[in-house]
Amino acid sequence: EIKPEIKPEIKPEIKPEIKPEIKPEIKPEIKPEIKPEIKPEIKPKIQPKIQPKIQPKIIVPKTPPILKEKTDIKPKQGRNNILNLKQIGMDENQLTLFSKALKASNGLILLTGQNSSGKTTSLYAAILECISKKLNVITFEDSIEYKINGITQVQLNPIEHLTLTSAINVSLCQDTNIILIDEIIDSEGAQSTLRTSLGRLVISTLNAANVIQAAERLIAMNIEPFLLASSLILVVGQRLIKKICPKCKYPVEMEENIKNIFSSHAFSEFSKSKVDPSMENKLNDIFSKYAAHSLKSYYKGAGCNNCQNTGYDGYTAIFEFLSIDDELRKLITKKAASSEINAYAVKKGMDSMLSKGLSLVAKGVTTPDQVIF
Q1: Helix/strand/coil (H/E/C) assignment for every residue in the chain
Q2: pTM score, two decimals?
Q3: Highest mean pLDDT of the ranges 261-265, 300-304, 348-352
Q4: Which of 15-24, 132-141, 203-212, 355-364 comes out lowest in average pLDDT?
Q5: d(Cα 215, Cα 226) in Å, to the nearest integer?
Q6: For the chain, which has fewer Cβ within 10 Å, the N-terminal or C-terminal residue?
Q7: What CA–CA distance (Å, rounded) separates 108 from 180?
Q8: In Å, how far from its chain's centre is CA 213?
Q9: pLDDT(19) > 70
Q10: What are 55's strand-pairing partners?
Q11: For the segment 275-334, what is each residue's pLDDT rounded down to a tens digit?
C-alpha cells in the first residue's frame, strides 16, 4: 500500500507589528505681545530763515605756483540783481542800436572788453532783453553764474564730451531764435560760433581792448575774413569805471596836468586813425563840449561812511558801438589795418569810450583818472 507523502504544514512567519514612534507635539512658544512705548511727538523748533537782500556767490579761482597756492576771491551777486541794458549804462541811442540788432534773424553780436570789464553782466542784460521780447533763447556757458527762468541754459563739460561744438550741433535741430555763448577763447570755438551765426542770431563775448581790435583777434584765430565780414552785425566795446559817491562829492579845480593829459589822449586817438582834413571840424565839434580844457572843475569824493572812505560808490560802464555796414565788410574782407577801420568808424560818427568818459566827467559822474586809459 502506497501512502501519500504528507508534507508538514508551513505557517507564514508573522512579524511583530512595528508601531511608529510617536513624538510629542511641539507647540510654538507664544510670547506676550509687547506694545512699544509711545512717546509724545516732539516738534523741532523752527527758526525763521533770514536771507540778506544780496546773496553773494563766491568764486575762488586757484593757480598752482612753485611754492604756494594762489587764490583770488571774487564775490558775485545773486540773480535778483541782474541789471538791464539801461541800468548798465547804455544811452538811448545805444539802446536803439542794440534793440535793432536783436531783431536780426541771423548774425553775430559781439561784446568786447578786457578782463573785469563787465562783459558777463552785459551778456545777462542782453538775455533779459531777449526774454522781454519772448524769444526762444539757449545759452552755452562754461560756468552758469545766474540761473534765469524762461530760457534754456547749458553748462559745457568737456570731460563728458559736452563741448561747444557738439552742443551747438544739437541746438541747430531745435527751433531756437537766439544762441548765447559766454566767451570765444580759441579757434575751435570761434569757428563754431561764426558758422552758427550764418543761420541763427548769436551773442557772444571776446577779450579785446576795443571794437576795432575785435576783427583782428578773430582773424588771428584762423577765421576767414569773408566769413567774419558776412557774420558780424554789431560790435560793442565796454569798460567799467567807478562812480563818485553822491554823499561826499565836492568840486575841485581842474589841474593843468590833467588838462594836458586829456587833450593828448583825446586827439591822439584820432590822429592814429589818419583822418582826412575834411573831418577836422567834426572832431572839434565832438570834443569842444567835453574836452578837458573846456572844463574849469570836476568832482571827486572826499570819503565817508557810505563809501567806506574810498570816495567812490558803485560802477557804471562806458560803451562804444560799431554797426557793421557794407563798407566795413569790404574793409574786413581785405584785412584792412585797424587805423583804416578806425578812420571810417569815426567818419561814420562812432562815439568812442573816451568821448563817453569825458561826458561823464563833465556831468560829475566820475573822476578824470577813471577815464584816462
Answers
A1: CCCCCCCCCCCCCCCCCCCCCCCCCCCCCCCCCCCCCCCCCCCCCCCCCCCCCCCCEEECCEECCCCCCEECCEEECCHHHCCCCCCCCCCHHHHHHHHHHHCCCCEEEEEEECCCCCHHHHHHHHHHHHHHCCCCEEEEECCCCCCCCCCEEEECEHHHCECHHHHHHHHCCCCCCEEEECCCCCHHHHHHHHHHCCCCEEEEEEECCCHHHHHHHHHHCCCCHHHHHHHEEEEEEEEEEEEECCCCEEEEECCHHHHHHHHHHHHHHHHCCCCCHHHHHHHHHHHHCCCHHHCCEEEEECCCCCCCCCCEEEEEEEEEEEECCHHHHHHHHCCCCHHHHHHHHHHHCCCCHHHHHHHHHHCCCCCHHHHCC
A2: 0.73
A3: 300-304
A4: 15-24
A5: 11
A6: N
A7: 10
A8: 21
A9: no
A10: none
A11: 444 444 554 554 544 454 457 788 999 999 999 999 999 999 999 999 999 999 999 999
